[in-house]
Design goal:
This protein is mostly helical. It folds into three domains: about 15-200, MFS general substrate transporter like domains (Growth Hormone, Chain: A, Up-down Bundle); about 215-265, no CATH class; about 270-458, Growth Hormone, Chain: A, CATH 1.20.1250. It has 16 helices and no strands. Helix 1 crosses helix 6 (about 155-170) and helix 2 (about 60-85) packs antiparallel against helix 9 (about 215-240).
Length: about 450
């Protein structure tokens, strides 16, 4: 019998919504949902915001600044969570996220809005890492697949209704409420999280225990490398939109990342060393391929197949739903992790390749839709499984650092593949073969997944 069959053990873990965990689970999901909605809403509304504030020349900085802050905060949040427990960085991150929203919402100029986005990035980076450590310390290991399945599902609703709500708010109420409306909903979510944390002990160092000097020095160096990585990613983002003129920036950004990124990731990550290094590499490869495909699929559907923006949005909604379904399935039992990852990464690569065939008019839209659902199902198997493995492969006190590495790898790999394919698209004519070239690069990255998935466990 296949090792991927569900374990028949009679003792099932409690539900993440059972009484002892309900408030905490609801609070975490609500905050992740708001974080996801804000991410998608800003991406939708920013062209209008930049035009109204007279800051189209600073458009890219509104995104790269937030990402740069997030990388630095992810490094700091991982060390802070390991040293002092996840509660303080969690609440600091929530406060920073809200503060950034308020600064951006009341911004009189594009420069002030970018400052708000920077503060948002700090808050989101701290919050995201602390959440992983909180899951490791509060929920039993048998519940981790279901917890991460629930958190992955929190991205589905914003993916479905986010763009439509954002458009209505910008058109009828005003773009500022894209930022100012979220804090209204953060308050009750934070109350639920506070209730769920009440009375729960989280692991913190013993009083008076001095932190070793090498650890402090190592943290300072790691934080500095985080800043260098952020600069490299920003160079990539700027260069990718300039076509041939941005080639120098593109090459410089790639060189900076090639030099600095390995300093932030576990040793052996770039050569797929067994264990946690491969987990980080696989997350970056899979997430980068998935997010880059998300960029090009609607462009192809609208530009090459004549679909309306609404129809293209419904096409993308199907992938979000299949992602959620796969996340739910992987959380319902004890599956063989390597089998899940091999299957998921293979489905992701095949699904993206099948969707790319829609560039040819002879291929029915339905065929592309089935392939896109397959890709969504694949990343839905992979994403939460790698989150679970991160905690399983972490020694006590390493959860924050390892979660930080996982999220940094995901962010930077995504930036690289989106920047490189975006540069190809911007530098060449938008012909059908250009789409195929971009999708070919994305599929090539996704195809590495099944080849290294078996190395995630020692």
């Amino acid at each position: 019998m296949s090792s991927a069959v569900i374990d028949s053990s009679p003792t099932a873990p409690p539900s993440v919504l059972s009484r002892p965990y309900r408030a905490l689970s609801v609070g975490m999901v609500a905050l992740v949902l708001l974080l996801a909605f804000e991410y998608l809403a800003v991406a939708t509304a920013m062209p209008v915001v930049a035009r109204l504030l007279g800051g189209l020349s600073l458009y890219g900085l509104a995104f790269s600044g937030s990402m740069a802050a997030s990388v630095i905060a992810t490094v700091a949040g991982g060390r802070w969570s390991d040293a002092r427990g996840p509660v303080a960085p969690l609440w600091t991150g929530v406060a920073g996220f809200v503060a950034g929203l308020l600064i951006a919402g009341f911004a009189p100029t594009m420069h002030v809005l970018i400052i708000g986005r920077f503060v948002q990035g700090i808050g989101g980076g701290l919050f995201s890492v602390a959440l992983y450590v909180l899951v490791a310390q509060v929920y039993p290991p048998a519940m981790h697949p279901r917890v991460f399945s629930l958190l992955a599902a929190a991205w589905v609703l914003p993916s479905i209704v986010g763009p439509a709500i954002t458009g209505a708010v910008v058109e009828h109420i005003g773009w500022r409420w894209i930022f100012l409306g979220i804090p209204i909903f953060v308050a009750p979510a934070a109350v639920m999280l506070w209730r769920g944390l009440a009375g729960r002990a989280t692991v913190v160092p013993q009083e008076g225990r001095a932190e070793p000097a090498p650890s402090r020095a190592g943290f300072g160096a790691r934080l500095a490398w985080g800043g260098v990585v952020a600069v490299g990613a920003a160079l990539l983002q700027y260069g990718s939109g300039l076509g041939g003129r941005g080639l120098v920036l593109l090459v410089a950004g790639l060189a900076v990342l090639a030099f600095a990124l390995p300093r932030l990731l576990p040793p052996g990550t770039m050569r797929a060393a067994r264990g946690f290094p491969t987990v980080v590499l696989l997350r970056g490869l899979a997430a980068g391929a998935s997010f880059a495909a998300d960029v090009f699929v609607p462009l192809m559907l609208i530009g090459e197949r004549g679909l309306s923006p609404t129809q293209a949005g419904l096409f993308l909604t199907g992938s979000a739903l299949s992602w959620s379904l796969a996340s739910w399935i992987q959380g319902r039992g004890r599956y063989d992790r390597k089998a899940l990852l091999r299957c998921g990464t293979a489905l992701l690569a095949l699904g993206i390749a099948g969707t790319a065939l829609l560039v040819f008019d002879a291929v029915p839209i339905l065929v592309g839709l089935v392939a896109w659902l397959m890709a969504g199902f694949g990343i839905g198997l992979v994403y939460p499984t790698l989150s679970v493995l991160t905690l399983e492969l972490s020694e006590p006190g390493e959860e924050g650092r390892n979660s930080s590495s996982l999220q940094i790898g995901e962010s930077v790999f995504s930036v690289v593949v989106i920047a490189v394919t975006g540069a190809v698209f911007a530098g060449l004519d938008t012909a059908w073969w250009v789409y195929l070239a971009c999708f070919g690069l994305i599929v090539a990255q996704a195809t590495l997944g099944p080849l290294i998935a078996g190395r995630v466990q020692r």
